[in-house]
Design goal:
Blueprint: H1 3-15, E1 56-60, H2 64-78, E2 86-90, H3 101-106, E3 114-117, E4 125-128, H4 130-141, H5 152-182, H6 188-209, H7 225-238, H8 246-249, H9 256-266, H10 269-275
Parallel strand pairs: 1-2
Antiparallel strand pairs: 1-3, 3-4
Helix pairs in contact: 2-4, 2-7, 2-10, 5-6, 5-7, 6-9, 7-9
Length: 283
């Protein structure tokens, strides 16, 4: 049977699918993450995490959600912020490291990135969710986020765009990226559905960036966590750094304002280091 015939046969079977009254997991349903995905939470094995000598300990992977934190930490390093020194350790999600006992203690949701701040006088602070980590660090060091006492309008814009990314990116990664790159076989409906939404989001950005150098304004002082958190997903998508042939499929070159912004940020020394950040093994 040819590959086209196999795809057609699989798609036909999928079109005939009738959901049961109560869903149960299906073993061997394919896809890149089939071996690690389960409908249950909690630790699956004992795993002690290493700890370096710096105040901040990052447990992550260089996926878009991980790169966000790398970007902020490297930008803080670029400014010479002493308290932002960190050690970075690799959580291999394909090997199930995210289900290790100590990692689950930091993040009960078993997703990267996770951070521990050992500089707090009242004891180590555990932070999970990339947006929460970025806001925590930006506010802790009063860098890359407008303070309400300085400019309430810019702060509101920064927080709004930061939350926009957190709410929108699942359509890009879990939706478009998954069905375009990781699903066991091509499925037109989900690809069309999530491609449409991804392109709508790119259009939102393109229209906004037509009149703004960065997400909240012009000038280096307006470069904030909103840019970093959005660039890690959308910037890398349009620069074709995430999904093979994804930029062409999305006609990313047509979003000229997003392209300008993405290339400008990609050229920053801290961002270059962040994308290629070497993560230490946990074993």
């Amino acid at each position: 049977m040819t590959q086209d015939a196999m795809n057609k046969d699989t798609t036909t079977n999928n079109n005939d699918y009738t959901p049961p009254k109560v869903w149960k997991p299906v073993e061997g349903n394919g896809g890149k993450f089939a071996n690690t995905n389960k409908p249950t939470a909690g630790a699956r094995h004992k795993q002690k995490l290493p700890k370096g000598e710096n105040p901040l300990q990052l447990y992550s992977l260089n996926t878009p959600n991980g790169v966000k934190i790398n970007m902020l930490l490297e930008e803080l390093a670029e400014l010479g912020v002493e308290g932002a020194k960190y050690d970075a350790f690799k959580i291999d999600i394909m090997e199930g490291d995210q289900f290790g006992s100590e990692f689950v203690t930091i993040n009960p949701n078993s997703k990267i990135p996770a951070l521990v701040d050992y500089s707090n006088e009242e004891g180590p602070v555990h932070i999970f969710e990339s947006g929460a980590i970025m806001m925590y660090l930006a506010e802790k060091f009063e860098k890359f986020i407008p303070l309400a006492t300085d400019n309430a309008h810019k702060r509101a814009a920064c927080l709004s765009w930061t939350m926009w990314q957190m709410g929108s990116a699942p359509y890009v990664g879990g939706g478009f990226g998954h069905f375009f790159s990781y699903a066991p076989y091509p499925m037109q409906y989900p690809i069309d559905r999530f491609t449409m939404e991804t392109k709508r989001q790119l259009d939102v950005l393109d229209k906004h960036l037509a009149n703004s150098e960065y997400m909240i304004g012009d000038g280096e002082e307006r470069y904030t966590i909103a840019d970093m958190i959005i660039w890690a997903w959308y910037g890398q998508v349009v620069l074709d750094q995430l999904y093979e042939n994804g930029a062409e499929f999305l006609d990313a070159s047509s979003y000229t304002n997003v392209q300008r912004w993405a290339k400008q940020i990609a050229a920053r020394p801290a961002v270059k280091r962040a994308v290629e950040l070497e993560l230490k093994p946990i074993n």
